[in-house]
Design brief:
The complex is a heterodimer.
Chain A lengths: L5 H131 L5 H14 L1
Helix pairs in contact in A: 1-2
Chain B lengths: L8 H8 L4 E5 L3 E4 L3 H6 L4 E3 H24 L7 H20 L7 H17 L7 H8 L13 H34 L8 H38 L3 H38 L3
Antiparallel strand pairs in B: 1-2, 1-3
Helix pairs in contact in B: 3-5, 4-5, 5-9, 7-8, 7-9, 8-9
């Protein structure tokens, strides 16, 4: 347990080891350590950013969905309205057509009646002439009385 | 007790506490000391080959392992060795950051070297006390004390290194004048009290390395003596005391390395501070 040169030797050894450690041991380990720390921090950062992005995207998707649903219902509404309108229009048209048909039918009928009346009149005049001829026993000249008979028929 | 029953306990203990000394003997010249007296007669010009050899071996082991880890160091997923090494490095880094206020790239590597080196040297204590002395006696070497930290030369040598750094940084940071002012004008800032301050501060300064070295030495030496005393028991009883004491020493070994390191950083931090 004597104090001797070992003291100095140990100091020198200590100095050399410390120097070596400063020069060759500490820097690579320390830098690797810090770089990894930074990497991990970056990774965590990115993860949180990604989760935030995801949230945003989900929100956006929900928004889009909501909008499209609204739009769809709007379109549906419009379509319903349009179809109702079309049906209404069709009904209107049909009614108009029917009325028109009825009117024309009525006109035709009137015409027919007129014609029948005319016919009837002609026949009546003829019958009257014939009757009169029968009564007068051929004394009436048809040609002489033609004008009179036509006047008679027009009066009917 | 491998030394056998023919040797006295006193001789056994003294033998185990004697370093392998090589030095200049007044009569024999440069030679290995063959007894404790011869070693003492050599005075200062002698060197403890076992202390130097084992401490350098442990230092090289530290450098080799950590250098290897440093070379393999990746920023990706670390392997087993890298993980262990990084744990130590991070521990030292946190310790330095907590106790050292200032910027100095030397402090953290210094603390790492001190911590791991002292830890490795202390750990040699867990090896049973008879293994290496017996082995070296078979090889014709009289003495072999394998734990360098049980030699005050080793602990005081490291403390001396720290002391040199304290002085160096005190002067570098505060200048010669600033350092002299700090020594002479604290704690009492009055010209009449300069001699008193000087005595106080210089004693305070010198006590730092002395306390650093002797604390480590005292703890390790005392532990070693207990181990040797336990080894004197009958062989079947040794483990009863040896095992608890060794387990306890796992704590002491780490704690002493930690204390030496922390105090060194604290002293160096104080050397950087202006008063």
């Amino acid at each position: 347990m004597n104090i001797n040169m070992t003291l100095i030797g140990q100091t020198i050894a200590f100095a050399i080891f410390v120097w070596f450690c400063i020069k060759y041991v500490w820097p690579p380990i320390s830098s690797a350590l810090h770089e990894r720390q930074k990497k991990i921090a970056d990774g965590l950062d990115a993860a949180s950013r990604a989760s935030r992005d995801l949230e945003l995207a989900q929100e956006q998707a929900a928004q889009t969905l909501r909008e499209s649903k609204e739009q769809a219902s709007q379109i549906l509404d419009q379509a319903n309205k349009r179809s109702a309108q079309i049906v209404e229009e069709a009904r209107e048209q049909a009614r108009a057509e029917g009325e028109r048909l009825i009117t024309s039918a009525r006109a035709e009928i009137d015409q027919e009646i007129q014609r029948a009346k005319d016919d009837l009149r002609a026949q009546v005049s003829h019958l009257a002439v014939t009757g009169a001829e029968r009564v007068l026993e051929n004394s009436v000249d048809e040609k002489a009385h033609r004008k009179l008979l036509d006047e008679l028929a027009a009066e009917l | 007790m491998a030394a056998g029953n023919e040797v006295s306990p006193t001789y056994y203990i003294q033998h185990h506490l004697q370093n392998l000394t090589f030095g200049k003997h007044p009569e024999n010249g440069w030679s290995l000391a063959h007894s404790a007296e011869e070693a003492r007669e050599m005075g200062f010009w002698a060197i403890h080959l076992d202390t130097m050899g084992w401490s350098i071996a442990m230092g090289l082991l530290f450098i080799w392992v950590f250098r290897k880890a440093g070379k393999m160091a990746t920023t990706g997923v670390p392997g087993g060795l890298q993980n262990a090494v990084e744990m130590v490095v991070e521990f030292i880094e946190n310790l330095t950051r907590a106790t050292f206020h200032g910027r100095n790239p030397v402090i953290a590597p210094l603390a790492l070297t001190l911590f791991v080196w002292i830890l490795l040297m202390n750990t040699l204590k867990i090896i049973p006390v008879d293994y290496f002395p017996e082995l070296f006696i078979r090889l014709g070497v009289d003495y072999m004390k394998i734990v360098p930290t049980t030699d005050p030369n080793a602990t005081l040598g490291m403390a001396l290194g720290v002391f040199c750094l304290i002085i160096y940084y005190s002067i570098k940071v505060k200048g010669v004048g600033g350092f002299a002012k700090e020594l002479s004008l604290t704690p009492f800032n009055h010209w009449a009290l300069i001699p008193f301050n000087l005595v106080l501060e210089i004693i305070g300064l010198l006590v730092k390395p002395l306390g650093l070295g002797l604390r480590l030495f005292g703890n390790m030496f005392a532990g070693e003596v207990i181990f040797i005393l336990i080894a004197l028991l009958p062989f079947w009883a040794i483990w009863l005391l040896d095992v608890p004491w060794a387990i306890f020493h796992i704590l002491v070994v780490t704690l002493q390395a930690f204390i030496f390191t922390t105090l060194s950083v604290v002293y160096l931090s104080a050397a950087h501070e202006h008063h």
